[in-house]
Amino acid sequence: LPSIRSLSESIQVNKLTVIEAYSLLEADGLIHARQGSGYFVNRTVTSGFTKRSNFAPAQEVIISEGEGSFFHQYTSSIQARRQQNIIDFSSGFPSASSSNYLQKIAKRALTKTGDNVFKEDFPQGQLVLRELIAQMLVQPGLEVSPEEIIITSGSQQALSLAMQYYLQKGDWVIVETPTYHGALGILENLGAKVIGIPMTAEGMNLELLEQYLKSHRPKLIYTISTLHNPTGITTSQEHRQALLGLAQQYECPILEDNAYEGLNFEPVPAPIKALDRDNWVTYISTFSKTLMPGLRVGYMVVTGEHRQPLVKQKLLNDLHVSTVSQAIVSELLASGHYRRHLSRLRTSNLQNCNVMLQALERYFPDAIAWTIPKGGLFLWTHLPNHLPIQAICRDALSEHVLVANGAAFFPGGGYPAMRLNFCHTPEDIEQGIKILGRILKNYLTP
Ligand code: PMP
């Protein structure tokens, strides 16, 4: 793009107007800034979800168990992942490349903790871990006390406890479309009725949200505010403020899922919970995306009168999280290893993400659009509407490439899409994307 100065001179407008126009284009995901070199067009994103979803209607859905259910998808993808020689772009977790180093720390943690690790524990979780998490949360911008933290078995349990607490069978609940399919699985099980509000480049469409808050009086808003799964969108600061304002106005609590906390390549706004003065927001996160999903350590931040009933629900659910897992996470946090690990992880994720972006440029046909991630673990690809996504995923699997079918992330059907995890070796990325590109070309060529 022409420089701000030359553009303002050639069309004779104020420089500030051009700056504002460029910022709007950037917010819409159409261009990006490269420090020192100016603005560049995001060729791959221009036909992507951000534009189309602005015009997509909201969906009202009662989700039902079946082939597309979270249960079916989860179990079948675990089965597929265990096969030999699979390039697994479908997983929602980091690669196991740091497992040796984490194993050493795990051993050290168990030696240090002594006998306590063999005893039962408090339902809310170990105090030392809650204190360390409270300290860690200062960085993303949350000031909470250890009493306001509940350690959960992954953030999946946190989601489940909070959704059970806020929702009854038949209640309306707002989700973003697309959204995390594991949350849809819980809502299906609870018999909740889902309203899907389309994502825009700024976060969920607030005009539609307000309409539905007025007309349906939902009991909960579920949002993945930072590095949204699956689109990667981070809800902007203004949107966060406005979303909380609407929640308060219509007395509808927010469940803020920040599972990808700490995995941002660029600065992100503080969580919505940081703006919450009257306990409208329950915040959840996890160590699954930064350490190991198998540890099953997540947590929720619950304030005010909601805390005690949720601690009780946690007790009734599974007494408490494994003491072994809690001891390992405590050791990582207390020793400073976690901070260093996170910084290395971000660097390697960014490198792998760039390798995947280059491979996509090389092998994917022009008709496919994809996002340029600002962190997290995935990029989101958008296929032309006529492409049979299920057959494409099946063909990929027959060539040992596993991808997440985008259909899983829509409560009531969406556009054909794939979610691709970029946490892989450059060789696997190159090989896997080459295979996918060939399959896609076959479907696009008459
Ligand atoms: N929330 C989001 C947005 C997720 O993507 C996931 C995992 N894919 C979870 C929650 C659950 O993860 P875990 O239970 O392992 O913490």
Automatic annotation (TrEMBL):
The keyword GTP-binding does not apply. In the C-terminal section; belongs to the class-I pyridoxal-phosphate-dependent aminotransferase family. InterPro entries: Aminotransferase_I/II_large, HTH_trans_reg/aminotransferase, PyrdxlP-dep_Trfase, PyrdxlP-dep_Trfase_major, PyrdxlP-dep_Trfase_small, Tscrpt_reg_HTH_GntR, WH-like_DNA-bd_sf, WH_DNA-bd_sf. The keyword Transferase applies. CDD domains: AAT_like, WHTH_GntR. Residues 1-44 form the HTH gntR-type domain. Coiled coil: none annotated. This is PLP-dependent aminotransferase family protein. Its cofactor is pyridoxal 5'-phosphate. Keywords: Aminotransferase, DNA-binding, Pyridoxal phosphate, Transcription, Transcription regulation, Transferase. GO terms for molecular function: DNA binding; DNA-binding transcription factor activity; pyridoxal phosphate binding; transaminase activity. Homodimer.
